[in-house]
Amino acid sequence: FLYFPETHGISFRIQITVKELLDTDVLLKLLFHLPVNYPSAVPDISVNSDQLTRAQCMDVKDKLLEQAKKHLSEPMVHDLILWIQQHLKDVIKQSATVCNEETTLSEGTSTEDGIWMLLLHLDHMRAKAKYVKTVEKWASDLRLTGRLMFMGKIILILLQGDRSSIKEYLILQKTSKVDVDSSGKKCKEKMMSVLCETEVQSQHQRFQTFEVKEYSTLKELQKEFEAAGLTALFSEFVPPLLK
């Protein structure tokens, strides 16, 4: 069990092996985050597997969340694990038949659950190349889009995606050794600020990719936010960082 007081709940990982297509063993790595009002609220779920594609993992997650909604107000994690052990083959087959519509379907599902946005401020990056590569990998693995932005000494990470993926990103950012300290030893990120975590509104533009960008002036950075319909977000959080 992994307990993170700042997320107001309990997170734990479960690994199960399912006998799957062509008698290949599929190892599913499931991360459940139980909110404080569980089981009146469904848990956040993350799914990873070396034997499945990212799209298939997302389909498994979506199906688990559908099942979770049927078990509201009663403990459900054990039932969800039993369900996916019995139905994984069907979920993967269904995923294969709609692979060409993957983007459309994932966007529809995401919109239904609500797309969230996260704005982080980092104080510094000593091992910049490694740090940037790590952030890019996390964003890719969790299907998050947005920007890693550098302007002078300001470092911002703006992410959009499923709320559960946003939460898992925050856990990774807080618990992984992503940088090095002044003596060159690997260290966790201790000087990160969550400036904003909110649901994406209709006036906000959706980022289609995750990109690393550098800006020479504050005006250039402001234009990036304005193009995404995030002028208010910029005005509230970015100028104070210059003081």
TrEMBL record:
GO BP annotations listed: positive regulation of hypoxia-inducible factor-1alpha signaling pathway; positive regulation of protein sumoylation
Keywords for the protein's UniProt record, in alphabetical order: Cytoplasm, Nucleus
Primary localization: cytoplasm
Domain RWD residues, every copy: 1-91
Localisation per UniProt entry: Cytoplasm; Nucleus
Cellular component terms per the entry's GO annotation: cytoplasm; nucleus
Pfam hit, one: RWD
Gene3D superfamilies cross-referenced by the UniProt entry: Ubiquitin Conjugating Enzyme
Name of the protein in its database record: RWD domain-containing protein 3
Protein species of origin: Mionectes macconnelli (McConnell's flycatcher)
